[in-house]
């Protein structure tokens, strides 16, 4: 939609240059000069010529001028609530029909799968209770846990000390010096006896076995084996790691009042998880029964009794005591679509009635429907209109006129009569009683596509020239 004032100004601008020449000519030569754009240069207007002139005229009149835009309008409820079941199921109870009036708290419909949902609720309650008890036990046993951690650390430290001693012992002789001397003397004795016997004799064989035993006893007492040293070192490392872990666990509990932070986090998370599951189970059970949240009428009902339904909207309750209209206007008119602007609505089903209201909302984002970009908003209807429309169905379509500005009982002339002189200056040619044209400076107010408001410079009933353009006024 084109902007009326801009169109008018464009049309005036196209004439600006020629009419400024006309104004200059008229001002210079007075009443006897030519009218430049009608008669051409060099021609004078005589009394006879004036009577035979072909320029058009219009009378200065009084009336209303309005700058407005139009768009589509749809009747809607200011408050409408969509209701849907919490789970899929079969509708076993339906207490309303389309168009029924309902009151807050009234039971509308319900599903038939309550047994399953009640069992789910019981399980959720049990899980939540168990999680709470586990958390409480963790908190109640804080002192015991701290004492046990300390005891574990002490035990681990003792084991470590023993491992240190055992590993250190592998660097020395296994037996005392007295025992080692005894085994050494026994080895020397057996060795001496073996050397005195004939090799291969029965006595020599017995002595050889005694020698091997004495040697083994002596070697065992003299030092630890490499395998034993390796095992002792490994045992020491294990004991040290165990001691550090026990010490760390004890320090953690000591700094956390006897409660392991990780266990506490897990226990608290379990409580929250089971509580959420309990809440959902409660909502699921409650959600198989739809209750009216407001007073209103049933404006949507998805299916009848014994129908299988999902969780989408099943019933819509609309408050028809507070009606409004949803407005769509072309994006080119967005500059005239402003908050608090007055509006007039005519619905197609009520063509002889005009409803008034005020723009209370303009959407911040344009909408695109069927390749057409529009601005959307809300017009709040006046109380009289709301009262009259309460018996009409929602979705009623019509046309809205949004009024940007308006002048009541204003002097006006056809837009063709106004000459734009630039810098906000305007003028008109007034037809004098003798038929001659006289230029008048005027002040212009509102302008639409066909008319211009004159706020100063003319009087009602005066006749002005519209040039060669014939108007309907």
3D architecture notes:
By secondary structure, the chain is an alpha+beta fold. It has 10 helices and 19 strands. It has a 6-stranded antiparallel beta barrel. A hairpin with a 3-residue loop joins strand 17 and strand 18. The protein is elongated. The N terminus is likely disordered.
What is shown here, in short?
By secondary structure, the protein is of the alpha+beta class. It contains ten helices and 19 strands.
Physical arrangement of strands within the biggest beta sheet: 2-9-13-11-10-14
Biggest sheet record: 6 strands, antiparallel, barrel
Taking Cα atoms only, what radius of gyration do you get, to the nearest Å?
53 Å
Tell me the β content.
Answer: 25-35%
Task: Provide key terms for this protein.
6-stranded antiparallel β-barrel, 473 residues, 41% helix, alpha+beta, 4-stranded antiparallel β-sheet, elongated
Secondary structure layout:
Elements: H1 4-29, H2 36-39, H3 47-51, E1 56-59, E2 61-83, E3 89-94, E4 101-102, E5 107-111, H4 114-140, H5 142-169, H6 177-195, H7 202-222, H8 226-255, H9 261-286, E6 289-291, E7 296-301, E8 308-309, E9 315-330, E10 342-347, E11 355-362, E12 367-369, E13 372-381, H10 383-389, E14 397-414, E15 419-422, E16 425-431, E17 437-447, E18 451-456, E19 463-467
Helix pairs in contact: 4-9, 5-8, 6-7
């Amino acid at each position: 939609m084109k902007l009326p004032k801009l169109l008018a100004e464009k049309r005036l601008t196209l004439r600006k240059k020629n009419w400024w020449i006309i104004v200059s000519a008229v001002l210079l030569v007075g009443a006897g000069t030519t009218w430049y754009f009608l008669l051409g240069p060099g021609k004078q207007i005589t009394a006879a010529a004036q009577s035979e002139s072909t320029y058009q005229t219009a009378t200065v009149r009084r009336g209303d001028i309005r700058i407005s835009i139009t768009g589509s309008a749809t009747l809607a409820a200011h408050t409408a609530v969509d209701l849907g079941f919490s789970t899929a199921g079969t509708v076993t109870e339906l207490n309303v029909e389309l168009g029924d009036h309902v009151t807050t708290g009234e039971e509308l419909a319900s599903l038939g799968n309550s047994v399953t949902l009640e069992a789910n609720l019981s399980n959720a309650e049990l899980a939540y209770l168990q999680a709470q008890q586990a958390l409480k036990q963790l908190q109640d046993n804080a002192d015991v846990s701290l004492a046990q951690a300390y005891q574990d650390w002490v035990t681990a430290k003792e084991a470590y000390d023993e491992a240190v001693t055992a590993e250190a012992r592998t660097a020395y002789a296994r037996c005392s010096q007295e025992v080692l001397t005894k085994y050494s003397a026994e080895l020397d004795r057996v060795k001496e006896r073996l050397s005195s016997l004939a090799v291969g004799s029965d006595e020599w064989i017995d002595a050889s076995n005694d020698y091997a035993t004495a040697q083994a006893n002596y070697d065992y007492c003299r030092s630890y084996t490499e395998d034993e040293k390796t095992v002792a070192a490994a045992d020491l490392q294990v004991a040290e790691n165990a001691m550090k872990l026990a010490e760390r666990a004890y320090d953690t509990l000591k700094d956390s009042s006897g409660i392991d932070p990780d266990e506490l986090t897990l226990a608290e998370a379990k409580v929250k998880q089971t509580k959420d599951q309990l809440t959902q189970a409660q909502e699921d059970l409650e959600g198989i029964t739809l209750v009216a949240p407001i007073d209103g009428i049933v404006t949507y009902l998805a299916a009848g009794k014994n129908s299988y339904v999902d969780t989408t909207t099943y019933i819509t309750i609309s408050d028809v005591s507070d009606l409004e209209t949803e407005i769509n206007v072309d994006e080119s008119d967005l500059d005239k679509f402003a908050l608090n602007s007055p509006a007039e609505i005519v619905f197609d089903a009520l063509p002889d009635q005009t409803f008034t209201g005020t723009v209370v909302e303009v959407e911040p984002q344009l909408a695109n429907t069927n390749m057409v970009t529009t601005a959307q908003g809300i017009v709040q209807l006046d109380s009289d209109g709301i009262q009259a429309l309460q018996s009409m169905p929602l979705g009623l379509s019509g046309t809205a006129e949004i009024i940007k500005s308006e002048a009541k009982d204003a002097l006006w002339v056809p837009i063709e009569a106004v000459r734009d002189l630039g810098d906000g200056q305007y003028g008109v040619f007034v037809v004098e009683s003798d038929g001659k044209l006289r230029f008048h400076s005027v002040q212009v107010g509102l302008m639409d596509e066909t008319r211009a408001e004159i706020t100063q410079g003319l009087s009602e009933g005066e006749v002005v020239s519209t040039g060669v353009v014939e108007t309907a006024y």
